[in-house]
């Protein structure tokens, strides 16, 4: 697709300055008078309302009291256009006065305000605000969330089981016991726009909210091409055989650690036979019906969430912009 990178989290040409992730360079960067850090709390980025009504990441000085002990484990995100260093601090150790019941829900609508910050700065669920961020802030937010989730779940060496330490400004973990180095993990996932004539294949997972349908998706297995993964996953979940497959666009999706590869495939049959262990339902949706879905007037199907690559692919399919 010619405009593939216009997908949410599609990239903003961030200068990640990987050559500056060493210890000596980090000391210099953290001493930079214009260095700033954004904050995350339990996977939520710190954002603030801007004067023009938009939403953006909030940035504070490296000695801001909200950092606490997190000031000793900053993650280097890169340099902005003015060559000023940007960092990330995880303050998940902070406990607000009240924890909402929705904190670990599919989509947490709650907002948290840290007492050391202003009321215009708050922590918000990234999936809920992703379309309101600029391309640069979206890339920084998705990078930060992905890195922090990796650190949260990979505190121990996969080789010897010993505790590992953060290194290379947060882009590496080293095991002092066996000297093994570990690097951030990204799992490849295919998500498929499978069409047959004027209709597209949609499915729903057991745990999804009522009315929510999306494109079929699944993890790529070792030794498998993207094309083979598309054909296997679609057949396993729906019984639909797929012929020609082509790549369309990709999207980093740190929930928890995926890189979504959007592909288009041509169905060879239309008789759906679902695997109830894999999905709850699958159906064919015509182009006319999908227009009703996007307008929010379909009686049974809710539109895919804006910002997700499924919405992006379906929207471009409806507009005949897949080339």
Key traits:
single chain, 323 residues, alpha+beta, Nucleoside Triphosphate Pyrophosphohydrolase, 3 domains, six-stranded mixed sheet, 15 strands, 26% strand, globular
Rounded to an integer, what's the Rg over CA atoms? 21 Å
Order of helices and strands: HEEEEEEHHEEEEEEHEEEHH
Oligomer: single chain
Based on the coordinates given, report the CATH architecture of the largest domain: Alpha-Beta Complex
Give the overall form: globular
Instruction: Outline the low-pLDDT stretches.
Output: none
CATH class of the largest domain, named Alpha Beta
Structure description:
The N and C termini lie close together (5 Å). Strands 1, 2, 3, 4, 5 and 6 form a 6-stranded mixed β-sheet that branches. The protein has helices at 23-30, 126-129, 135-153, 226-238, 287-294, 309-318; strands at residues 36-41, 44-49, 55-57, 75-79, 85-90, 121-123, 165-167, 172-174, 181-182, 187-196, 199-204, 216-219, 242-253, 258-267, 281-286. The chain has 3 domains: 4-153, Nucleoside Triphosphate Pyrophosphohydrolase, CATH 3.90.79; 154-184, no CATH class; 187-318, Nucleoside Triphosphate Pyrophosphohydrolase (Alpha-Beta Complex). The model has no long low-confidence stretch (mean pLDDT 95). The protein is of the alpha+beta class and 323 residues long.
